[in-house]
Amino acid sequence: MIVGRILPSFMLMLDRSFTYRPLSEAGEDQQVKSLLAQCFNAPRDRESLYFDLMGRDRYRGFWVGDRFAGALALLPMGQWWNHQRVPMTGIASVGIAPEHRGSGVALAMMQQMLLELHQQNVPLTTLYAAAQRLYRRAGYEQAGSVCGWEIETGSIALRHRPLSVRSIALEADLLMKMQHQQAIVNNGHLDRHPAMWKLLLTETDAPLYAYEFGDGEGYIVFRQEADQSLLKIVDWAVLTAAAGQTFWSFLSDHRSQIDKIRWTSAAIDPLSFWLPEQTANPRFVDRWMLRIVDVVSALELRGYPSDISAELHFEVQDDLITANCDRFCLTVSNGRAHVTRGGRGDLKLDIRGLAPLYTNLFCASQLQQMGVLEGDRDTLMQADRIFTAAPPWMPDFF
Question: Which string of b and e fits 226-240 if b means at least 16 CB within 10 Å?
Protein backbone atom coordinates (compact mmCIF):
# COMPACT_ATOMS: atom_id res chain seq x y z
CA MET A 1 0.00 0.00 0.00
CA ILE A 2 1.21 3.50 -0.87
CA VAL A 3 -0.25 6.36 1.14
CA GLY A 4 1.05 9.86 0.55
CA ARG A 5 0.86 13.07 -1.39
CA ILE A 6 1.41 13.96 -5.02
CA LEU A 7 5.04 14.47 -6.01
CA PRO A 8 5.76 18.24 -6.11
CA SER A 9 6.76 18.30 -9.79
CA PHE A 10 3.38 16.78 -10.74
CA MET A 11 1.10 18.62 -8.31
CA LEU A 12 -2.08 19.73 -10.00
CA MET A 13 -5.42 20.27 -8.27
CA LEU A 14 -5.17 17.22 -6.01
CA ASP A 15 -4.25 18.54 -2.57
CA ARG A 16 -5.47 15.78 -0.23
CA SER A 17 -3.87 12.53 0.91
CA PHE A 18 -4.35 9.49 -1.29
CA THR A 19 -4.10 5.72 -1.10
CA TYR A 20 -2.98 3.42 -3.92
CA ARG A 21 -3.11 -0.32 -3.20
CA PRO A 22 -4.43 -3.76 -4.26
CA LEU A 23 -8.11 -4.48 -3.63
CA SER A 24 -8.72 -5.99 -0.21
CA GLU A 25 -12.42 -6.90 0.04
CA ALA A 26 -15.39 -7.96 -2.06
CA GLY A 27 -17.07 -4.58 -1.71
CA GLU A 28 -14.11 -2.98 -3.49
CA ASP A 29 -14.45 -5.50 -6.32
CA GLN A 30 -17.98 -4.26 -6.91
CA GLN A 31 -16.83 -0.64 -6.85
CA VAL A 32 -14.25 -1.37 -9.54
CA LYS A 33 -16.71 -3.31 -11.73
CA SER A 34 -19.30 -0.52 -11.51
CA LEU A 35 -16.75 2.19 -12.22
CA LEU A 36 -15.26 0.45 -15.25
CA ALA A 37 -18.68 -0.35 -16.72
CA GLN A 38 -19.49 3.36 -16.47
CA CYS A 39 -16.09 4.53 -17.77
CA PHE A 40 -16.14 2.26 -20.82
CA ASN A 41 -19.89 2.52 -21.47
CA ALA A 42 -20.10 -1.27 -21.28
CA PRO A 43 -22.69 -3.68 -19.86
CA ARG A 44 -22.07 -4.45 -16.21
CA ASP A 45 -22.00 -8.21 -16.81
CA ARG A 46 -19.30 -7.83 -19.47
CA GLU A 47 -17.04 -5.85 -17.12
CA SER A 48 -17.71 -8.40 -14.38
CA LEU A 49 -16.67 -11.21 -16.72
CA TYR A 50 -13.51 -9.30 -17.68
CA PHE A 51 -12.71 -8.66 -14.00
CA ASP A 52 -13.25 -12.29 -13.04
CA LEU A 53 -11.14 -13.62 -15.92
CA MET A 54 -8.30 -11.25 -15.06
CA GLY A 55 -8.44 -11.91 -11.32
CA ARG A 56 -8.78 -9.39 -8.48
CA ASP A 57 -5.06 -9.60 -7.65
CA ARG A 58 -4.35 -7.86 -10.96
CA TYR A 59 -6.28 -4.71 -9.96
CA ARG A 60 -5.19 -1.62 -8.06
CA GLY A 61 -7.51 0.95 -6.52
CA PHE A 62 -6.95 4.65 -5.85
CA TRP A 63 -8.67 6.59 -3.05
CA VAL A 64 -8.61 10.33 -2.34
CA GLY A 65 -9.17 10.62 1.35
CA ASP A 66 -11.83 7.96 1.97
CA ARG A 67 -13.48 8.29 -1.45
CA PHE A 68 -12.89 5.71 -4.17
CA ALA A 69 -11.52 7.61 -7.18
CA GLY A 70 -10.06 5.21 -9.73
CA ALA A 71 -8.66 1.83 -10.67
CA LEU A 72 -6.39 0.05 -13.13
CA ALA A 73 -5.21 -3.49 -13.90
CA LEU A 74 -1.66 -4.84 -14.21
CA LEU A 75 -0.85 -7.75 -16.53
CA PRO A 76 2.72 -9.04 -16.04
CA MET A 77 3.93 -10.70 -19.22
CA GLY A 78 6.76 -10.40 -21.75
CA GLN A 79 7.41 -8.57 -24.99
CA TRP A 80 9.76 -9.66 -27.79
CA TRP A 81 12.51 -7.33 -28.99
CA ASN A 82 15.01 -8.62 -31.57
CA HIS A 83 14.40 -12.26 -30.57
CA GLN A 84 14.77 -11.52 -26.85
CA ARG A 85 11.96 -11.59 -24.29
CA VAL A 86 11.84 -8.50 -22.06
CA PRO A 87 9.55 -8.59 -19.00
CA MET A 88 6.73 -6.10 -19.49
CA THR A 89 3.60 -5.18 -17.56
CA GLY A 90 0.56 -4.30 -19.63
CA ILE A 91 -1.75 -1.64 -18.18
CA ALA A 92 -5.47 -2.14 -18.72
CA SER A 93 -8.84 -0.92 -17.42
CA VAL A 94 -7.68 2.56 -16.37
CA GLY A 95 -10.80 4.28 -15.07
CA ILE A 96 -11.44 7.46 -13.06
CA ALA A 97 -14.71 8.31 -11.31
CA PRO A 98 -16.42 11.23 -13.10
CA GLU A 99 -16.36 13.50 -10.04
CA HIS A 100 -12.55 13.15 -9.83
CA ARG A 101 -11.73 13.76 -13.48
CA GLY A 102 -9.63 16.83 -14.20
CA SER A 103 -8.30 16.92 -10.62
CA GLY A 104 -4.97 15.17 -11.19
CA VAL A 105 -6.17 11.77 -9.94
CA ALA A 106 -5.41 9.90 -13.18
CA LEU A 107 -1.84 11.19 -13.35
CA ALA A 108 -1.26 10.54 -9.64
CA MET A 109 -2.55 6.97 -9.99
CA MET A 110 -0.29 6.33 -13.00
CA GLN A 111 2.71 7.72 -11.11
CA GLN A 112 2.14 5.43 -8.16
CA MET A 113 1.70 2.44 -10.47
CA LEU A 114 5.03 3.23 -12.17
CA LEU A 115 6.79 3.56 -8.82
CA GLU A 116 5.35 0.18 -7.80
CA LEU A 117 6.63 -1.43 -11.00
CA HIS A 118 10.05 0.18 -10.57
CA GLN A 119 10.27 -1.26 -7.06
CA GLN A 120 9.53 -4.67 -8.62
CA ASN A 121 12.35 -4.19 -11.20
CA VAL A 122 9.96 -4.27 -14.16
CA PRO A 123 11.80 -2.95 -17.26
CA LEU A 124 8.84 -1.94 -19.47
CA THR A 125 5.16 -1.12 -19.36
CA THR A 126 2.81 -0.86 -22.34
CA LEU A 127 -0.76 0.35 -22.84
CA TYR A 128 -3.36 1.51 -25.33
CA ALA A 129 -4.24 5.13 -24.67
CA ALA A 130 -7.66 6.75 -24.78
CA ALA A 131 -5.93 10.09 -24.09
CA GLN A 132 -2.27 10.36 -25.09
CA ARG A 133 -1.65 13.63 -23.26
CA LEU A 134 -2.21 12.01 -19.88
CA TYR A 135 0.14 9.12 -20.51
CA ARG A 136 2.81 11.31 -22.06
CA ARG A 137 2.87 13.29 -18.82
CA ALA A 138 3.60 9.99 -17.08
CA GLY A 139 6.52 9.24 -19.45
CA TYR A 140 4.81 7.08 -22.09
CA GLU A 141 5.25 7.61 -25.82
CA GLN A 142 4.04 6.05 -29.07
CA ALA A 143 6.04 2.86 -29.62
CA GLY A 144 4.30 0.51 -32.06
CA SER A 145 1.26 -0.04 -34.24
CA VAL A 146 -1.81 -2.18 -34.67
CA CYS A 147 -3.96 -2.25 -37.79
CA GLY A 148 -7.43 -3.63 -38.50
CA TRP A 149 -7.96 -5.17 -41.95
CA GLU A 150 -10.93 -6.25 -44.05
CA ILE A 151 -11.34 -8.22 -47.27
CA GLU A 152 -14.27 -9.27 -49.42
CA THR A 153 -14.35 -13.07 -49.20
CA GLY A 154 -15.10 -13.42 -52.91
CA SER A 155 -11.94 -11.51 -53.82
CA ILE A 156 -9.49 -13.93 -52.20
CA ALA A 157 -9.18 -16.14 -55.31
CA LEU A 158 -7.11 -18.88 -53.69
CA ARG A 159 -8.42 -22.43 -53.93
CA HIS A 160 -5.38 -24.65 -53.17
CA ARG A 161 -4.69 -25.99 -49.67
CA PRO A 162 -1.14 -27.32 -49.39
CA LEU A 163 -1.79 -28.42 -45.79
CA SER A 164 -4.50 -30.31 -43.98
CA VAL A 165 -6.99 -28.36 -41.85
CA ARG A 166 -8.44 -29.83 -38.68
CA SER A 167 -10.78 -28.52 -36.00
CA ILE A 168 -9.14 -28.19 -32.57
CA ALA A 169 -10.34 -27.42 -29.06
CA LEU A 170 -10.31 -23.89 -27.66
CA GLU A 171 -7.39 -24.59 -25.34
CA ALA A 172 -4.46 -22.25 -24.86
CA ASP A 173 -2.02 -25.15 -24.45
CA LEU A 174 -2.71 -26.22 -28.03
CA LEU A 175 -2.01 -22.75 -29.42
CA MET A 176 0.79 -21.38 -27.22
CA LYS A 177 3.66 -23.11 -29.01
CA MET A 178 2.62 -21.78 -32.41
CA GLN A 179 1.89 -18.31 -31.05
CA HIS A 180 5.31 -18.28 -29.39
CA GLN A 181 7.06 -19.16 -32.67
CA GLN A 182 5.31 -16.26 -34.39
CA ALA A 183 5.85 -13.80 -31.54
CA ILE A 184 9.58 -14.29 -31.20
CA VAL A 185 10.29 -12.98 -34.72
CA ASN A 186 7.91 -10.00 -34.53
CA ASN A 187 9.07 -7.02 -32.51
CA GLY A 188 6.49 -5.92 -29.96
CA HIS A 189 4.59 -9.21 -29.79
CA LEU A 190 3.55 -10.53 -26.41
CA ASP A 191 4.41 -13.51 -24.32
CA ARG A 192 0.80 -13.46 -23.18
CA HIS A 193 -0.34 -13.54 -19.58
CA PRO A 194 -2.72 -16.49 -18.90
CA ALA A 195 -5.55 -13.98 -18.49
CA MET A 196 -4.96 -12.83 -22.09
CA TRP A 197 -5.51 -16.37 -23.31
CA LYS A 198 -8.66 -16.67 -21.19
CA LEU A 199 -10.05 -13.47 -22.65
CA LEU A 200 -9.25 -14.53 -26.22
CA LEU A 201 -10.75 -18.00 -25.93
CA THR A 202 -13.87 -17.25 -23.89
CA GLU A 203 -17.04 -17.38 -25.95
CA THR A 204 -19.24 -14.30 -25.46
CA ASP A 205 -21.54 -12.96 -28.17
CA ALA A 206 -21.03 -15.81 -30.66
CA PRO A 207 -19.40 -19.26 -30.72
CA LEU A 208 -15.66 -19.47 -31.38
CA TYR A 209 -14.12 -21.91 -33.86
CA ALA A 210 -10.47 -23.00 -33.98
CA TYR A 211 -8.54 -24.83 -36.72
CA GLU A 212 -4.94 -25.97 -37.10
CA PHE A 213 -3.01 -25.92 -40.39
CA GLY A 214 -0.82 -28.95 -41.01
CA ASP A 215 1.14 -30.29 -38.06
CA GLY A 216 1.65 -27.14 -36.00
CA GLU A 217 2.31 -24.77 -38.94
CA GLY A 218 -0.40 -22.33 -37.96
CA TYR A 219 -3.90 -21.82 -36.61
CA ILE A 220 -6.94 -19.59 -36.79
CA VAL A 221 -9.58 -18.75 -34.16
CA PHE A 222 -12.69 -16.90 -35.32
CA ARG A 223 -16.35 -16.13 -34.76
CA GLN A 224 -19.10 -15.57 -37.32
CA GLU A 225 -21.62 -12.74 -37.16
CA ALA A 226 -24.64 -13.84 -39.19
CA ASP A 227 -26.40 -10.46 -39.22
CA GLN A 228 -23.42 -8.90 -41.03
CA SER A 229 -22.27 -11.98 -43.01
CA LEU A 230 -18.95 -11.35 -41.29
CA LEU A 231 -16.16 -13.64 -40.13
CA LYS A 232 -14.02 -12.02 -37.45
CA ILE A 233 -10.61 -13.54 -36.78
CA VAL A 234 -9.89 -13.44 -33.03
CA ASP A 235 -6.37 -14.92 -33.13
CA TRP A 236 -4.01 -16.42 -35.69
CA ALA A 237 -0.52 -17.69 -36.33
CA VAL A 238 0.99 -18.48 -39.74
CA LEU A 239 4.49 -19.96 -39.59
CA THR A 240 5.16 -21.18 -43.16
CA ALA A 241 4.32 -20.28 -46.75
CA ALA A 242 2.19 -23.42 -47.00
CA ALA A 243 0.26 -22.33 -43.91
CA GLY A 244 -0.27 -18.88 -45.44
CA GLN A 245 -1.71 -20.33 -48.63
CA THR A 246 -3.87 -22.76 -46.65
CA PHE A 247 -5.06 -19.92 -44.38
CA TRP A 248 -6.48 -17.96 -47.33
CA SER A 249 -7.85 -20.96 -49.21
CA PHE A 250 -9.67 -22.07 -46.08
CA LEU A 251 -11.22 -18.61 -45.69
CA SER A 252 -12.08 -18.42 -49.40
CA ASP A 253 -14.18 -21.54 -49.00
CA HIS A 254 -16.52 -19.56 -46.70
CA ARG A 255 -17.57 -17.26 -49.56
CA SER A 256 -21.04 -18.77 -50.01
CA GLN A 257 -22.14 -17.53 -46.57
CA ILE A 258 -19.54 -14.95 -45.52
CA ASP A 259 -19.19 -11.64 -47.36
CA LYS A 260 -16.36 -10.06 -45.39
CA ILE A 261 -13.44 -11.14 -43.23
CA ARG A 262 -11.76 -8.94 -40.61
CA TRP A 263 -8.52 -9.44 -38.72
CA THR A 264 -5.86 -7.53 -36.79
CA SER A 265 -2.25 -7.35 -37.93
CA ALA A 266 0.55 -4.92 -38.76
CA ALA A 267 0.19 -1.83 -40.91
CA ILE A 268 2.39 -3.71 -43.40
CA ASP A 269 0.40 -6.91 -43.10
CA PRO A 270 2.33 -10.18 -43.49
CA LEU A 271 -0.88 -12.16 -44.07
CA SER A 272 -1.73 -10.12 -47.18
CA PHE A 273 1.56 -11.17 -48.80
CA TRP A 274 -0.02 -14.42 -50.04
CA LEU A 275 -3.04 -12.78 -51.67
CA PRO A 276 -2.94 -12.83 -55.48
CA GLU A 277 -3.97 -9.15 -55.59
CA GLN A 278 -4.00 -6.24 -53.14
CA THR A 279 -7.67 -6.66 -52.28
CA ALA A 280 -7.36 -6.26 -48.47
CA ASN A 281 -8.13 -2.82 -47.08
CA PRO A 282 -7.15 -1.23 -43.74
CA ARG A 283 -10.07 -0.36 -41.47
CA PHE A 284 -8.08 1.45 -38.78
CA VAL A 285 -4.50 2.09 -37.70
CA ASP A 286 -3.68 2.79 -34.06
CA ARG A 287 -0.52 3.10 -31.98
CA TRP A 288 0.19 1.67 -28.56
CA MET A 289 2.43 3.40 -26.04
CA LEU A 290 5.42 2.20 -24.05
CA ARG A 291 7.20 3.50 -20.96
CA ILE A 292 10.75 2.58 -19.96
CA VAL A 293 10.50 1.86 -16.23
CA ASP A 294 14.12 0.76 -15.70
CA VAL A 295 16.57 2.11 -18.27
CA VAL A 296 19.43 -0.26 -17.47
CA SER A 297 17.49 -3.54 -17.45
CA ALA A 298 15.32 -2.56 -20.45
CA LEU A 299 18.40 -1.92 -22.58
CA GLU A 300 20.36 -4.94 -21.37
CA LEU A 301 17.53 -7.42 -21.91
CA ARG A 302 16.66 -6.25 -25.43
CA GLY A 303 18.21 -7.96 -28.46
CA TYR A 304 20.41 -6.11 -30.98
CA PRO A 305 21.85 -6.79 -34.45
CA SER A 306 24.37 -9.61 -34.08
CA ASP A 307 26.79 -8.23 -36.67
CA ILE A 308 27.73 -4.96 -34.94
CA SER A 309 30.00 -3.99 -32.06
CA ALA A 310 29.31 -0.44 -30.95
CA GLU A 311 29.13 1.98 -28.04
CA LEU A 312 26.60 4.73 -27.43
CA HIS A 313 26.85 7.45 -24.79
CA PHE A 314 23.53 9.01 -23.84
CA GLU A 315 21.83 11.09 -21.16
CA VAL A 316 18.23 10.55 -19.99
CA GLN A 317 15.88 12.87 -18.11
CA ASP A 318 13.07 11.27 -16.07
CA ASP A 319 11.05 13.52 -13.76
CA LEU A 320 9.45 10.61 -11.90
CA ILE A 321 11.96 7.78 -11.52
CA THR A 322 15.21 9.35 -10.38
CA ALA A 323 17.28 6.19 -10.99
CA ASN A 324 16.65 6.68 -14.73
CA CYS A 325 17.88 10.27 -14.67
CA ASP A 326 21.58 9.88 -15.48
CA ARG A 327 24.27 9.45 -18.11
CA PHE A 328 24.76 5.94 -19.48
CA CYS A 329 27.09 4.06 -21.79
CA LEU A 330 25.51 1.29 -23.88
CA THR A 331 27.96 -1.30 -25.24
CA VAL A 332 26.63 -3.74 -27.84
CA SER A 333 28.34 -6.90 -29.07
CA ASN A 334 27.14 -10.26 -30.46
CA GLY A 335 23.50 -9.19 -30.26
CA ARG A 336 23.51 -8.35 -26.54
CA ALA A 337 24.21 -5.21 -24.51
CA HIS A 338 25.82 -4.02 -21.29
CA VAL A 339 25.00 -0.67 -19.66
CA THR A 340 27.19 1.32 -17.29
CA ARG A 341 26.50 4.67 -15.67
CA GLY A 342 28.54 7.70 -16.66
CA GLY A 343 30.07 8.67 -19.97
CA ARG A 344 29.83 11.68 -22.25
CA GLY A 345 26.06 11.99 -22.74
CA ASP A 346 26.42 12.48 -26.52
CA LEU A 347 22.76 11.65 -27.16
CA LYS A 348 20.33 13.66 -25.03
CA LEU A 349 16.69 12.69 -24.61
CA ASP A 350 13.97 12.31 -22.01
CA ILE A 351 12.31 9.08 -20.94
CA ARG A 352 9.49 9.60 -23.46
CA GLY A 353 11.91 9.95 -26.35
CA LEU A 354 13.66 6.73 -25.39
CA ALA A 355 10.50 4.65 -26.03
CA PRO A 356 10.20 5.01 -29.86
CA LEU A 357 13.99 4.73 -30.18
CA TYR A 358 13.99 1.52 -28.12
CA THR A 359 11.24 -0.05 -30.25
CA ASN A 360 12.47 1.43 -33.55
CA LEU A 361 9.09 2.97 -34.29
CA PHE A 362 11.31 5.83 -35.44
CA CYS A 363 15.08 5.88 -35.81
CA ALA A 364 17.31 8.36 -34.00
CA SER A 365 17.76 10.53 -37.10
CA GLN A 366 13.99 10.85 -37.50
CA LEU A 367 13.52 11.57 -33.79
CA GLN A 368 16.15 14.31 -33.99
CA GLN A 369 14.18 15.97 -36.82
CA MET A 370 11.04 15.71 -34.66
CA GLY A 371 12.80 17.54 -31.81
CA VAL A 372 12.64 14.47 -29.54
CA LEU A 373 16.40 14.07 -28.98
CA GLU A 374 19.71 15.82 -29.57
CA GLY A 375 22.99 14.52 -30.93
CA ASP A 376 25.58 15.13 -33.62
CA ARG A 377 25.51 13.29 -36.93
CA ASP A 378 27.92 10.53 -35.90
CA THR A 379 26.00 9.87 -32.68
CA LEU A 380 22.69 9.68 -34.53
CA MET A 381 24.09 7.25 -37.09
CA GLN A 382 25.49 5.09 -34.29
CA ALA A 383 22.09 5.02 -32.56
CA ASP A 384 20.41 4.15 -35.87
CA ARG A 385 22.71 1.15 -36.29
CA ILE A 386 22.28 -0.09 -32.72
CA PHE A 387 18.49 0.13 -32.53
CA THR A 388 17.69 -1.03 -36.06
CA ALA A 389 14.93 -3.65 -36.02
CA ALA A 390 11.80 -4.78 -37.81
CA PRO A 391 8.82 -2.42 -37.36
CA PRO A 392 7.11 -2.92 -33.98
CA TRP A 393 3.49 -4.14 -33.86
CA MET A 394 1.23 -6.46 -31.95
CA PRO A 395 -2.13 -8.09 -32.76
CA ASP A 396 -3.32 -8.01 -29.13
CA PHE A 397 -5.43 -5.39 -27.42
CA PHE A 398 -5.70 -5.06 -23.63
Answer: eeeebbbbbbbbbbe
* One pLDDT digit (tens) per residue for the chain, 398 residues: 443 433 433 333 445 689 999 998 878 999 999 999 999 998 888 888 899 999 999 999 999 999 999 999 999 999 999 999 999 999 999 999 999 999 999 999 999 999 999 999 999 999 999 999 999 999 999 999 999 999 999 999 888 999 999 999 999 999 999 999 999 999 999 999 999 999 999 988 789 999 999 999 999 999 998 788 999 999 999 999 999 999 999 999 999 999 999 999 999 999 999 999 999 999 999 999 999 999 999 999 999 999 999 999 999 999 999 999 999 999 999 999 999 999 999 999 999 999 999 999 999 999 999 999 999 999 999 999 999 999 999 999 99
Looking at residue 183, what DSSP letter applies? Answer: H
Beta partners for residue 92, in sequence order:
73
Contacts of 121 (CB under 8 A, 6+ apart): 294, 297
Q: Give me the domains of the chain, ranges plus CATH numbers.
A: 2-139 (3.40.630.30), 147-287 (3.40.630.30), 294-387 (3.30.1050.10)
Got the DSSP string for 202-238?
A: ---SS-EEEEEETTTTEEEEEEEEGGGTEEEEEEEEE
- Quickly list DSSP for 146-187: EEEEEEEGGG------SS-EEE--S-HHHHHHHHHHHHTTST
Residue 92 is given by DSSP the state E
How far is it between the farthest Cα atoms of the chain? 67
Query: DSSP for 185-197?
Result: TSTT-EE--HHHH
Whether the Cβ atoms of residue 393 and residue 80 lie closer than 8 Å to each other: no
Q: Give pTM, 2 decimals.
A: 0.93
**What separation, in Å, do the N-terminal and C-terminal C-alpha atoms of the chain show?**
25
Question: Cα separation of 110 and 137, whole Å?
Answer: 10
